[in-house]
Amino acid sequence: MKKIYDYQKDDQVNLYVLIKSADEKITRTNKPYLSFTFQDTSGEISANYWDVTPEDIEKFKPGTVIRLEGKREEYKGNPQIRINAIRPAKEDEPNNPELYVERAPINKDKMVEEFNHALFDITNANMNRIVRFIMKKYQHDFFQSPAAKTNHHAFMGGLAYHTVSMLRIARSLSEIYTDLDVSLLFSGVILHDVGKVVELSGPTATDYTLEGKLIGHIVMINEDIVRACRELKIDEDHEDVLLLKHTVLAHHGELEYGSPVRPLIPEAEMIHYIDQIDAKMNMISSALRKTEPGEFSERVWAMNNRSFYKKTYINPASDSK
Amino acid sequence: MKKIYDYQKDDQVNLYVLIKSADEKITRTNKPYLSFTFQDTSGEISANYWDVTPEDIEKFKPGTVIRLEGKREEYKGNPQIRINAIRPAKEDEPNNPELYVERAPINKDKMVEEFNHALFDITNANMNRIVRFIMKKYQHDFFQSPAAKTNHHAFMGGLAYHTVSMLRIARSLSEIYTDLDVSLLFSGVILHDVGKVVELSGPTATDYTLEGKLIGHIVMINEDIVRACRELKIDEDHEDVLLLKHTVLAHHGELEYGSPVRPLIPEAEMIHYIDQIDAKMNMISSALRKTEPGEFSERVWAMNNRSFYKKTYINPASDSK
Amino acid sequence: MKKIYDYQKDDQVNLYVLIKSADEKITRTNKPYLSFTFQDTSGEISANYWDVTPEDIEKFKPGTVIRLEGKREEYKGNPQIRINAIRPAKEDEPNNPELYVERAPINKDKMVEEFNHALFDITNANMNRIVRFIMKKYQHDFFQSPAAKTNHHAFMGGLAYHTVSMLRIARSLSEIYTDLDVSLLFSGVILHDVGKVVELSGPTATDYTLEGKLIGHIVMINEDIVRACRELKIDEDHEDVLLLKHTVLAHHGELEYGSPVRPLIPEAEMIHYIDQIDAKMNMISSALRKTEPGEFSERVWAMNNRSFYKKTYINPASDSK
Amino acid sequence: MKKIYDYQKDDQVNLYVLIKSADEKITRTNKPYLSFTFQDTSGEISANYWDVTPEDIEKFKPGTVIRLEGKREEYKGNPQIRINAIRPAKEDEPNNPELYVERAPINKDKMVEEFNHALFDITNANMNRIVRFIMKKYQHDFFQSPAAKTNHHAFMGGLAYHTVSMLRIARSLSEIYTDLDVSLLFSGVILHDVGKVVELSGPTATDYTLEGKLIGHIVMINEDIVRACRELKIDEDHEDVLLLKHTVLAHHGELEYGSPVRPLIPEAEMIHYIDQIDAKMNMISSALRKTEPGEFSERVWAMNNRSFYKKTYINPASDSK
Amino acid sequence: MKKIYDYQKDDQVNLYVLIKSADEKITRTNKPYLSFTFQDTSGEISANYWDVTPEDIEKFKPGTVIRLEGKREEYKGNPQIRINAIRPAKEDEPNNPELYVERAPINKDKMVEEFNHALFDITNANMNRIVRFIMKKYQHDFFQSPAAKTNHHAFMGGLAYHTVSMLRIARSLSEIYTDLDVSLLFSGVILHDVGKVVELSGPTATDYTLEGKLIGHIVMINEDIVRACRELKIDEDHEDVLLLKHTVLAHHGELEYGSPVRPLIPEAEMIHYIDQIDAKMNMISSALRKTEPGEFSERVWAMNNRSFYKKTYINPASDSK
Amino acid sequence: MKKIYDYQKDDQVNLYVLIKSADEKITRTNKPYLSFTFQDTSGEISANYWDVTPEDIEKFKPGTVIRLEGKREEYKGNPQIRINAIRPAKEDEPNNPELYVERAPINKDKMVEEFNHALFDITNANMNRIVRFIMKKYQHDFFQSPAAKTNHHAFMGGLAYHTVSMLRIARSLSEIYTDLDVSLLFSGVILHDVGKVVELSGPTATDYTLEGKLIGHIVMINEDIVRACRELKIDEDHEDVLLLKHTVLAHHGELEYGSPVRPLIPEAEMIHYIDQIDAKMNMISSALRKTEPGEFSERVWAMNNRSFYKKTYINPASDSK
C-alpha cells in the first residue's frame, strides 16, 4: 500500500490516512474550513478542507481513517495536500487507526525477550532486585511510551525500542571493554530513561507532565531507586546502590544537559555514549527516510540544525542484504 | 588578645595559635624540618621549623595549641612566620583548640531560636511536617557543618549561619513581594543545603564524601523528602510536595551549576537569588577582612577571580553604629 | 468593570478599550481593512475590522477609547477579537485614555515620599548632593518613564516603581549586612537606571533614542555624575565620586551584559543582585497574571525562555491577606 | 617482577627501571645533581640524585636500565623516589629498555590480522584501493606510533591499538545499525588518525612535528587521499571519494575540535562516537590503574578534569573471568 | 534611470526590472496568481500578480525584463510592489538581463591588472608557480563567482572584487609592517577563497555544491596546492609549501569558524584580519545603502544581528570628493 | 654593544645592564641574598646574588646600571644568569638607565609630526577642537605611557607608538574605503586609548590605578569628551559628539571585552579592527624576536596561548631591504 511520502510533488494522491488533528478555522471572508493534519507510517502532512458543513466537521474528527483523493503540493516550502475528495474509510477497508501510527520496528514480545535476557545477566543481587522491582511497576506503560516528545524515538513503543537497542550495544561493548561491570552497565541502561514513562503524558499527543517539568525524569528514576530499596530492605548506603544511582543520574553526561553529576565511573560514561549513539542514529535515519538519494534532509534541530546527506550509490555489500 | 592578622609585615609576633597541620619534610641537604600551618580566628599562616628532633615532631602535632614567638614575613607574596621559639600552651593558658577555629558570629541558641520562629511561620501542614522530619534527623550535624569545603561559610556552624541569614532575607523580601508563598519560601530555604551535612565530611578537614561526589547534595535532599513522605504518609503526588522538591532541586538556578531543573516558580527563583546574595556577601567580606583600607584583596576564585577594593573613607552614618 | 483578559476563549465580549494602534491594510482581494491593537490594563489584543470606509479610518485612530462588542477567539495560538460592532466612547462613558494604560501600582506621591526618605538617609555629603542634583534634572520624566522597552516594568511610571522597590530591598538588606555603606547603596540604587529617562523615548510607543543606542544608559548616567561634580565643585578624584561612578557602571554585573567594569566593591555587587531580583520578580508575576492556576505561562524571553508554573493550592497563610 | 606503582608510600624500593630523562642541575649552594625521571610499564616517577660526579652523569644517561634502591616518598603531593643507591643493570639482568615502555596489550601480528580482516570487508573497490594504498605507505610507522602525545593511547603501538579497538566497535555496531555502509565505516575508521604518523614525531619523546602543527593530522590524511586518487587514477569527483574524505575530515565532530566540517552522513557521525568511546575508555582505565579501590583517581585533564572512582566490590560475574 | 530603491513608500513606480523568480500559487479561494521577486542593481522587491492566465505564466518567466507600473507599499514591514500593469520589455528598450544584476564596482580588466601586479610581487619562486597554476585553472570562473551565498560580496564578480580589495589592504599594511613576507602575504590573499569557485554553484541562484558542503572551500584549496605541487614537481615538504598551505587553512582565524588550524605565523594572522575587514565593510555598506540618513539599517545577521546607523551630517572633507 | 638575548645558553656573559628590581631574600639556611631582574633593550632576565652584605644591598638598588660578568643558564626552562661578578657602571661607562629600557622604535619628534599631520586632516571643527583639547591636557604623559601593563606595546612611549601605527593604517584604509569619514576615523584613533595615561601608573613598574580599575580607560576618555565639550561650549547633543563618543566607547568591539556598546557605525568597526591588527602584530613580533628561526615562540597568553612559528627561509624580496 502506497504511503504519503511515496508520492512526489504534483502527483495525484489516492490513499488511506489517519486524521491526526482537525482544527476548525474561518477564512478572512468568514467561511468555515478544516485545517487537517493527516498521518500514516511514512509521516505527517497538512491539508485545508474548504467550505465545510457542520456534518463534515462531525464526520472528520481526529482518529478517523479516511480515503483521500487529492494532489501533493508545496506551500512555502512545506509539503501539503490539495483535497479533491475525502470520505471515512468503510468497514471492509483498512480503518484501524493503529495501522497508521509509527511504532517500534520490532514487536513487544521480542523486546520483552531481550529484556529478560539482559535481566538474567545482571548477576549482582542488589541491582537485579532493584531493576526488577522498578520494571514491574512500569511494565505496562514502558512498552507503550515514546522516548521523547519530538526528538528521537518519538513514537509508540519508542522508549522500549531505544532501551533494547542500547542493551544490544552495551552487550557488544562489554565484550570489547572487559573491565566493565556488566550488572551495572545493563541495570543503568534499563533504568536510565524509565522516568520518561511518568515525565511524558503517553504515546499520543505526547507532552510533559507537571512532575516531568518540575522534577525531571532523571531525578524521578532516582526516587524510584530510593523507594525500591525501602521496599526491598536494601541498604541504601551500599556501594551497589550508590553506583546504580550515579549511573542513572549522570547519563546525560554534562551538567548543562540536566545531569546533576557528571559520570565518575566508566560504566556511567559508557551509558552516556551508548544513549547518544542510539538517539543520534535514530534522528539521522528518520531525517534520511524522507530524503531523496543525492539530496540533503531537512534540518534536524536537536543535532545542531544539521542537514544530512543521503548518498546515491549502492554499496555492493549491502545489495544482497 | 592579639591575633595573627593583627600583626603587620616585619612585626615581632608573640601569641597563642593552634597547629592546624604539621608536615615532616627534609631539606635538600637531608635535614628534617616541620612545615606548619598555624591558625586562629583571624586566619591561617604557614611557617617552617628547622632542624627538628623526633621529640619536637611528637610534641607539635596538629591540634596542639602553642605559644609562638617569631617574626611576620613574606615569602613569594604570601605571609609567613619566621619562628624564633615555640612551646605547647600550658594548663593555665588558653589551650582549648576550639578557641582558635573560625565559627559562626551568632551562637547556636540564637540560631535555633530563629529556626523555630521560621518553622512556626510554615503554616502549610505538609511542608511543615516534612521540614520538621528532616531537620530532626540532621539536627546535631546541621549546627556543626560548614556550608562548603572552601568557598563561602567554610567554617564550623557555617551551614546553619548561612541558612539563618537566608531566612532573614527571605522574611524581609516576603514583605515586599507579598504574592510569594511564605511556607514554600521558608521550607525551601531551610532544606536547600541540608544535604551538605552528608555531602561534606564535617567541620574539620572538610572534604566531599563518596555519596557527596556520586549523588550530590541537591539530589540527596530530594531523596530525604521522598523518605519523609513515606514515613509521614504524605501523598507524594500532592502539589505541595512537588513544589517543595522543585524548589530544592532548582536552587542552583541553572543546569550548568548542578540543578537538574531550572526555577519554574517564583519561590524557587527567589531562593536562588537569596542563596547567591548570602554566599557572595560572605566571600567578599572574608576577602576584605584581610585587606588594608585603600587596597585590593587577594583574588576570589569563586567570584570569577575578582579582587575587591576596601574603601578608605569612613561614612559618618556608620560611625555611630 | 470587566477587562479583556477577564474573558475566556469563545466568550462574547462587551467592554471599553483603548485603540493602541490601527494600521490600514488591504485584503488579497483588494478590500481595505483596519488591523487594530486594543489595550486595557489587563493587556493587549489584536483584531481586524473588515470592509472599512474612509470615515471609519478617521473615526478609529490610535488613542481613541471605544465601545467594543465581539467574540474572544484564537488565531494561530494567539488571542484575538472578532469584532461585531465598535463605536467611540461617549462623553458620559469612561473615555479617558489614561484609564486603559498599565501603570505603577503605587501612586506618584507615595513614591516621591519614599525617595525623600531614602535621600534623607544618604548622609555622605558628596553623594547626597550629586544624587539630588541629577534627580532634580530628571524629576518630571523619571516618574513617567518605563524601566524598559519590553522586558520588565515596561509601563508608565515603571522606572520609578522599579527604583522604589529596589530601595525597599536595599533598606532591609542593609540591616542584615551591616557593613554595607548605606549612603553608597542608596545613591547607587537611585541613580542606576536614571539614564533610561534619556535612553528610552518615553512612556508610550517606547523605543531607544539615538543616544540610547550609541552611548547607552550606563555610560549616560556616568556622564551626569561628571557634570554634577563640575556644577557642584566636587572633586572628581574623591573616593566618594569614584565609588559612586563604579557602582552605577558595574550594576549589570558582567561585561557581557553591558557593564564596562565588574563589581569590585560589596555595594556594587549588592545593587546588581537587587536589580536582578526586582526585574525577575516583575517579569514572572506579569507572566503569571495571564496564566490559569495549574497551567504554565507563555515563555518569557528575557528569562532564558522559561515558562512559569502557577500553583493551584491556596496557602492558608495568604488566605487572610 | 614488582613495578614502581606496586609500591606504597614509604615502602623500601628495590627494582629495575629505565631512565627516561636525566637533567643536570645545580643546587642553590652550587652543587651539581641529576634530576631523573624513571619509568617502567606501571608509569613514571621522578627522583633527584645528589652530589653527582661527571662519571655519574656519563653513566646514567636516558635510555639506560638501572638497578634502583630507595624509598617511595611524596613531595608536594606527587610520588617521588629517594635514591639510596643506583647502578646500571648488568648483562644477565633485564637490561633491554623495551621491557620498560608501555605498549599495546595485543601484539602486532594479531593487530595486522584484524586489519586484514577489515580490509577484506571493504567491498567498495574505490575505497578498498585508497585505504590499501595509504596503509602501505605508512605500514611500518603505523604500528609503532602512539595515538597522542599525552592524552589517550600515548604509547608505542597506541595508534594501531586504538584503531583496532575502533574496528571491533564498528563491526558490532554495523550489525545493530544495518543501514550503515560497512565499506565507508571501516575505511573511515582505518584512515581517521593515520595522519598522526606524520603529525607526531614517533613513539619516544613524542612531540608535534612542524607539519603536524601547521597543517594538522586531519587535513594531512585528506591530502593523502588526494594523492592516492591521482596515483590510482580514481576520479576524485566520485561520491565514494567525497564521502571517504568527508568521513575523515569530520571525525572530530565539531568545528571547535578541529574538524573543518561537521558530520553530515551517518557513517561520519558514528566514527566520531566510536573514536570518543575508545579514547575515553582508555583514559579512564589508565587513570584507574593507578588508583586504589574505594579511592578517586588523579584528575584527567582531557576529560574536563574529572577524577574517577574505582569501585570496591567484586562483581561475582567478573570473578570467574 | 530611476531604480526600485530610489522610490519611497506610496510612490507611483514606473520602471524596468528583471524577474528574478516567479512562483505559481493559488489564493484560498482557489484562484491562481504569480508571486514575483523583481530585481535591479539597487536591490530586490516582491510583488503578487493576481488572477493570472496561463499566457501570463508563460510570458513572465524568471530572467525576463519587464516594464512595471505600480505602487511602492509595505507589507508586514517589508517593502513590496502593488502591480498596476506589467509587460515584457521591447526590443528597443533596456531588455538585457545583465543590466539588472549587481556586480563588482570595478571591471574585470582593471581587476586582472591588479592581480598581475600582485603576481609580479610574489618573488618566491615556489609560491609564484603554485599561485599561477591554480589561478590558471579557475581563471574564468574566478571573475564570475560571488564571494558568498548571502553574506558579503554576494554578487557576480564578488569573489574577485573581494580579493582585489584585500590585495590593496595587504599592500599598504606590508609597507607598515615591513617584517611581513610579501610573497606569502599576497599568495595567501589570492588563494584564500579560490575554493569558493567550486564550493558555490555560480553567480546566479547561488547555492553550496555537494563538495562545498562535505569538504568545504578551505580544505578544497589546500587540495589544489597538493595537486599543483605534484604537477609542478615542487617538494611538498619545503617550508614554502607548508607556510602557504597553513596561511590558507588558517584564514578563518579560529577553529569554530571552520579553520582546522589557528594562525601560527604573522602572515596568516594578518590575512585573517584583512579578510574580516573587507567582508565587514562590505556588509555594513550594503546595509547602509538601503538606509535613510539618521536611521538605523535592517539587522545584519552575519554581524551578530547588529543594526547600523547612517549619519546625517556631511563632512566638509568628503564634500569635494 | 651585545645585549642579554644575543647570548646563548651556557655562554659567558659580559655586559652592562640595568637593575630593574632587587628583592632581599634569605636562603633556607638563613643567609641573605638578592634576587635581581636585569634588563636591557633586548629583554629581561633574572639572577640570584648569594651571600650579600648590607653594603651590596645599598649599592645594587633598582635603577642602577651595572657591569655584569656571569654565565647564561636555564632554570626550570627559563633563562637566568649565574653571576660571577657585578659592579656599578662608572662615570665613563654607559650608565644612563634610559639606554636600557625598551622604547618605541621611532622618536618622539617624528611621532609628534605624524600626529600633527593627522590633526590637520580632521576637518570637522567640533572633532578637531575636542581632540586638540584632550591631547593638550595629556601631551606630556601620552608620549611616555606604555599601551598596556603586560600585553602589547608595554614599553615607554608604547601608547604613542601604537597610536601612530594605527593612524598609518587608518590613512591607508581610508583611501580604499572612501566612504569612511576621515575626521571621525582619525579622531577616534587618536582618542581611543588616551585614557590609558590615567588608567596605568606610568612607564615604569606599570600597574593599574584605582580609577583605572573602578572606571576603566574606555569610560574615562568618554568623560574627557564630556569635559571638553563643556569647556569649549560644544553642544553635547550634536551628532558629531555622539559619534565620536560612540567610536571611543565601542572600540573593544564586543561587550565581553569591556565596550559598553558594540560598533554601530563603520568608523567604529574599522577602528576596532585597526586596534586589533596593531596589537596583535606587536605581540607576535615581540614573541618572535626571542625565537630562533625554525622554532616556535613561547606561548602568548593574550593571543589564546598560541605559540608562533619563526620561518627559516629568507625571502629574496626582503633581502635587499
TrEMBL record, chains A, B, C, D, E, F:
The keyword Transmembrane does not apply. InterPro entries: HD/PDEase_dom, HD_domain, NA-bd_OB-fold, NA-bd_OB_tRNA, YhaM_exoribonuc/phosphodiest. Keywords: Exonuclease, Hydrolase, Nuclease. It comes from the Bacteria. GO terms for biological process: rRNA 3'-end processing. One of its GO terms (molecular function) is exonuclease activity. Residues 162-280 form the HD domain. This is 3'-5' exoribonuclease. It comes from Alkalibacterium putridalgicola.
